[in-house]
Records
---
Amino acid sequence: MRTTVHRHLGKVVAGAAIALAGTAAMVAVTLPGTAGADEKTGGKNNGAQAGAQEQAQGGGQDQAVAPGVVRKAPADGEKGTGRDPLTDAELDRAEQIALNQQVRRSGEDVEGDRGPQRLAVDLAEPEADELDGASAPRRAEVTYYDYKNDTLVIKTVNLDTGKVERTSSEQGVQPPLSPDEDTEAVRILLADPLSAGLKADYKDATGKELTSPDQLEIDSMVFRAEPGAQPAALDKCGEHRCARLFPKALNGPWIDMRHLVIDLSARKVAELKR
């Protein structure tokens, strides 16, 4: 049974009512009425390409997540072996190769600063003719989002040669949001008058004023526009990068803000039709 306390423009939801296991999918199940939002799974630093592919295939529906095995990256050494997770040195090297000076000068991140928004760096799958090769080169896929032109870019870097082998770019493909994007979405929201309900509910729950994103735990879902299902201000969501937030006071309750959407590309907040 869910206990919900209605207050102001938002709703404070008792902590026991929503048990999150690090995924917004569970929020979507516990908090109904998320039509128009794409599922966002946990693990924001890995698997952005898979998330992008699911979104491109219309993955706005809740989907079962197969159990996985977490493999720890090698503790020492600058280079991993075989299918070992990328080492810290490989992660840094892949990003430096992919995000060269030209890319950094021309791109724009979620805060509007120079350089595209980094989403993930993942170990790339080997080529078909390398599956049985013990000496197959290690490659990394560097995924980033350029807010200057709302483009998702994936670069495949050969870590042995230090070269970019492939580059793919798409518009209208929206992988799960990164932690930095979640944080910026909260900043944009807190600066907008529509955050009044969130601030009031936070004060009711904690006795303190809400002034900073670090006072909240945030999960989120990418929001896509559906014809007639939202105000005109959100019609570009999907082309733009838009977020629906599920905030939780640190050591406190969840606050239901499903009625608000933050357009990170336009840096605006709008309220969904009810």
Note: The helical segments are 24-30, 48-56, 88-98, 101-106, 179-190, 196-206.
---
Amino acid sequence: MKKVVIIGGGTAGTMMANALAKGMGEKLKNGDVSVTMISDKKEHLYQPGLLYIPFGLKTEEEIIRPVKEVVSPLIDIVFDEATQFSTEQKQVKTKSGKTFSYDYLIIATGSRPAVEEVPGLEEAGHIFYTLDGAKKLQKAMEEFEGGNVVMAVGLPHKCPVAPLEFTMMFDDWAREKGIREKTNITYCYPLQKPYGTESVAKLATKEYTERNINIETFFMIDHVDAEKKEVVALDDTRVPFDLLVMIPPHKGADVTVKSSLTDNDEGWLPTDRQYLNHVDHDNIFVIGDATNLPISKAGSTAHFEVEILAENLISMIDGGQANKRYNGKVFCFIETGLHKATYIAFNYEQPPKPVTPSKAVHWAKLSYNNAHWINLKGIL
């Protein structure tokens, strides 16, 4: 029997499990192949939905479902936390003390906002990249009646366009609430422009200028001064706030940060950009946010990676070759307010080119959000 072990029950891990179940159904039923997915959570959270929670546009119930409901019954699901990889023995050890052997290992452990990396943030600021954070921010916004609002961004982070989306959505929200005239919005970004890619930076600059949103560039976050209510950069630039929303730098999961498979302090795993295997191991693959690939850490990235890897892995299990190559394809919707959106599509070679924002694209994004659960199962 060939054994496949998937670490992670988020979007990447779940899509991969379902793709293998779809492509190897008979082999799984006959016991020729087994696929085990180890997830440290029993509920699947649709992370892009967190953007809408602070604005009251989505509820907790709409973006969460039990993992068992979204994973094929042909997959063995283990609710535990992977704590160690033993590549020589081809084993994964878990927090409960169990050991799982594999012929092929797929690491889809995602990323997390490293709030602890920014002193003062937890005390005086807000994030919306976790469910608890998004709900707390929603409450703070309900009580907000005007003042200095700061969106401060650290790098790297998943869903790179989300800070842009939140800022423009907040602008619309403040206008509809009737408090925009007494609200000052500042966007702080660590690079020369408000986004790392020229075309998206140009879009953001245009939108922010029209909306009277301040842009503070080369702003590399150091800490939050909770007493003075200021966010402070490494060069001691200080921006005052009454409401601080921050995207702290992200890190990989603890198991990858501590693993010998990584070559950096953040826990990103060195991954072949075409075949998605770990650069030092032909039987270990990395998908989703856990890779060190020079592309966005986003759900669509995982989707396109899974399409390639699932077909290659099935071929390898059958004794064939991995012939499909991932070209870095990514597709991202970008909300440009509460009622309009644009999108970008790009890959390793072709940079993104945002289309003109429109209501039609906004509704397309909302439809895509609602279709996540179908997409997760590999039906779309």
Note: The longest strand covers residues 33-39.
---
Amino acid sequence: MRDSTKSVRESIDPITGAITTPIYQTSAFLYPEGEKYRYSREVNPTVLELGKKIAELEGAEAGLAFSSGMGAISTTLLTLLHPGMRLLVHVDMFGRSLRFAKDYLSSWGVKVDVAPANDQGMLEMITKGYDVVMIESITNPLLRVIDLEKVGKACSEVGANLLVDSTFATPINQKPLEFGASLVIHSASKFIAGHNDVITGLIAGKGELVKAIDQMRRTLGTSLDPHPAYLTIRGMKTLKIRMDVINRNAQQIAEFLEAHPKVAKVYYPGLKSHESHSVAKRVLKGFGGVVSFEVRGGAQEALRVMKSTSVIIPAQSLGGVNSLISHPATMSHRTLSPEERKASGIGDSLLRLSVGIEDVEDLIEDLDKALSKI
């Protein structure tokens, strides 16, 4: 089956014949008939179906759902790492992921190294040997596309488990397991759920790893409630058609912004000018729904543009049907130090645009009007 079919299909309820997954809004299940489930923090039928669906979409042996993307990341890393083990991350990843690795895992005795914002530097570091390498396949917010072919091969050679945060790519534009990743991670609150109305995290990958992470999830309590699981399953049904529109809209907007006199630079893998364009064409099936750009000026001008849109909503999240715009330096990456932001290339004039499914001409007109304010 292809992705559109996998996204739509659900397991038919064996008792009632319901063609959509019911919301099992219960804390416990009758024993012994409910022995498989017992308690919803551990296993819930609605949440179980969501894990099954992400596994199918990613071509994985197993999948698992969490209360948030960070819940998925923290639970996974706490399962796979122990004091004395080695973790490699990269400087231009999501601020909270970097903070968890550098601030918490380091204090716990894990040796954490941070690779620079380029593939060559990371590949050279991988040869030193790591237990876990965690990357974002498309970085946030400058959209550097990491060469998964080379990174996957390098991790295999040193026996490292490769974890890939594929939130920006989605299973529609890339399947990291095909490049040798052990696990793929999603903040499913974004493109997968797709409607800016849930907080959810997902993983998919090797069965034995997912099983071990599942036991840690039950202990930590990073479990997903059945209602957002239901909403995420519903959102996944339109993932392929939403991403087709979003990919197309984002490309047109990136081209418009690149030609605009008030824009200094545009970051989008679909542009020939982007540093990762050649890699993106090789490892991605689509270039994604996030476009970042620097306006001419500084923080004041960027914030004025962000606050001047009327169709596009100023907000920190991304990946929904509604287009959102944010200022990374004061929003998504505010926890990074000035030095870390500089190393990641995040300047005060940078804006991140999450492109939705609105009419692209309306979005372009809205951006043009906002840019005219500076």
Note: The radius of gyration is 20 Å.
